[in-house]
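Researcher: I'm preparing a figure for a lab meeting and need a structural model of a single chain. I don't have an experimental structure, so a prediction will have to do for now. The sequence is pasted below. Please return the structure as tokens so I can convert it later.
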Amino acid sequence: MSGTAALWWRNAVIYQVYIRSFADGNGDGVGDIAGIRSRLPYLKDLGVDAIWINPWYKSPMADHGYDVADFREIDPLFGTVAEAEQLIEEAHRHGIRVIPDIVPNHTSDQHAWFQAALAAGPGSPERERYIFRSGRGPDGSEPPNDWVSCFGGPAWTRLPDGEWYLHLFAPQQPDLNWQHPEVRTEFESILRFWFSRGVDGFRIDVAHGLIKHPELPDLPPRQEPAVLGPLVRREPADEQPRQHRDHPHWDRDEVHDIYRTWRRVADEFPGDRSFVAEAWADTTERLAAYVRKDGLHTAFNFDFLMSSWNPKDLRAVIENSLAMLGAVGAPATWVLSNHDVMRHPSRYGRKTVRRWVANERYEPEGPLDLELGTRRARAAALLMLALPGGAYVYQGEELGLTEVEDLPEAVLQDPVWERSGHTDRGRDGCRVPIPWSGPTAPFGFSPEGASAGPWLPQPADWAERSVEAQTGDETSMLELYRAALRLRREHPALGDGTLTWLEAPEGVLAFGRDPGFVCVVNLSAEAHPLPEHTSLLLSSTPVEEGLLAPDQAAWLAV
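Model: Understood. Here is the structure written out token by token.
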């Protein structure tokens, strides 16, 4: 392990809490802070180091909280600031750190600043905090440029006074003008507000956004639709190595000035406060720029999530990530699923698992083979948790939950569904409330006697995947995660550090970590003997006759 391994965020396994769908404490069918507090013992027993909580701020919920009306208030749907402070205190007593989301690219259209801008009119100082422009064409009836919303449709909305405002997401999410000093000062104040209440860091939503080209030019060729991320569909890119292209509103160099200031704010507080960036970048080199020593601490590694189930692809992603991030002294982070993408057992449970190309919504090929997807997901978990650096676990992945692909159209709530003209079902399938106990819905998600059912319906067969059903079953996904996280905490080779690739048969990944640890993953169609070892620490499925089966992983002591 490196000398910086004592910094918790270099090793941390962070559990993502999508608050609406984790646990409902008051019985209204929507998860809340009370629900999280009630499940802290479960999270401690699972063995995670921190929880990342999706937005809990006051919001009209046009995008389930990513449209923030007040960053210093908790939305009543979820609780109060006092309850948040209680959660932070109780989590700390359980040895769990708390990392809320921060959403700096945009606000809600109900935010006091935007309402003031609407009232003040064109040319006012209030409008300078956002991006307002006159339209093109003789009467200004055409948008100021050709930028496209991540949720579909144009990125501009015209007001009755004739001006247009920019929203790279929904119209209810106007983009802030990060060239304005008041915007920068306000967010530094917001960070201090929550740091002073004990949060241990922030996950930064759309960290690659914020800065726009001052002239707001049209998009260059091959950059339509304008997004780096999972939200929109595009024709697959060619297979040439990715090269950075100057984009008018994504991943601009000036954004790093903001994060250098944020790093100084975090350093004002004790306890190694940290940031993690949701930053989509063309290349790993561009991603590494976010985590230089004077910038943010970590960034999500989407290349790992987007990889195919192919040994060459996975090894290339791992090698490139470790090399590029290591060059700037940053740890890698690894993630398999989150609230914006199809759950990985459903991606892996197809005969063909293709590499997911940025700017393209993942479309699975063929029907789901649940047994195959589960077997590969178990192996992927051991691979992820053995790699150097930190890892993220999305709520429910420790239960082996799959994407709910058959939600009725009438219940879909993701704004992508409406903005796409009902051609893209959006992200609701990975956001269904998770099952805790009992034979029927809501499976312990809400308390007995709840006034409403879960905000999205749960599949009937989730009874067998609940926490209660899997606890104590050594063959379950939950007990695999518990065992892996326990070993990860105990074994001196795991967490931050380095790896060494080992010789292995074609289709098999094998690497060693000092002292005395080997991870081996068989992605081929044939069984292969385990490498020499002194003991089998853990395997994704039972090892028979010393052979590692296809889609199986093992941790070995050597």
